[in-house]
Amino acid sequence: MQEFTLIRNIRSRFLKELEEHSLEELNFIPSSHRNNILWNIGHSVVTQELLCYSLSGFHCNMDKELLKLYKIGTAPDGKATQKDVDVVKHWLVESVDLLEKDYNAGRFQEFKEYTVGFGTHLTCVEDAIRFNPIHEGLHYGYLLAIKKLL
């Protein structure tokens, strides 16, 4: 699927942002926003996991604490550590590799239909994978807006 290439392209930009900004900048929450650069990246990674694995009836590959920090409806406290950043960096690469491997192996047979926040209805894992680069692009845009306020 071409979407894996798109996801990797966005993820490489996310990785660059994590490497180019200080921990203080990654944690900065502008008064006009609910979140920060790190949250937008972590949220993108966690959302892929929840949409593709959880809705397909699998346990998620990531630690439950990571899922709790970045799932929809959460907001950061601005106190992430370098260890937190390193965990997000790891999953930026690892999660798309795992997803592609599992998809190509035919692991995804079931899927619980789900409608995402802005109305797109997902009926199968392919829909979730196709939607993922759109979602990540949206959060990359939020990240760019936050960068202008640093």
Description of the molecule:
The structure is a single chain. The protein has 150 residues and is mostly helical. It has a single domain (2-147), classed as Four Helix Bundle (Hemerythrin (Met), subunit A), CATH 1.20.120. Helices cover 62% and strands 3% of the residues. The protein has helices at residues 2-20, 23-27, 37-52, 64-70, 82-104, 125-147, and strands at residues 114-115, 121-122. Strands 1-2 form a two-stranded antiparallel sheet. The termini are far apart.
Task: Label this structure with key terms.
150 residues; Four Helix Bundle (Hemerythrin (Met), subunit A); 6 helices; 2 strands
Give the arrangement of secondary structure elements.
Blueprint: H1 2-20, H2 23-27, H3 37-52, H4 64-70, H5 82-104, E1 114-115, E2 121-122, H6 125-147
Antiparallel strand pairs: 1-2
Helix pairs in contact: 1-5, 1-6, 3-4, 3-5, 3-6
> Which structural class fits the helix and strand makeup?
mainly alpha
Tell me the radius of gyration.
Answer: 15 Å
What's the CATH topology label? Four Helix Bundle (Hemerythrin (Met), subunit A)
Total domain count: 1
Total DSSP helices: 6
Record the strand order, biggest sheet: 1-2
Count of DSSP strands: 2
- The share of residues in helices is 55-70%
Task: Just give the CATH class.
Answer: Mainly Alpha
The CATH level-2 architecture is identified as Up-down Bundle
Question: How far from one another are the termini?
Answer: 36 Å
The low-pLDDT segments are none
Largest sheet: 2 strands, antiparallel
Classify the beta-strand content into a percent band.
under 5%
Query: Can you tell me the CATH superfamily?
Result: dinb family like domain
H/E series, N to C? HHHHHEEH
The mean pLDDT is 97
Coarse morphology: globular
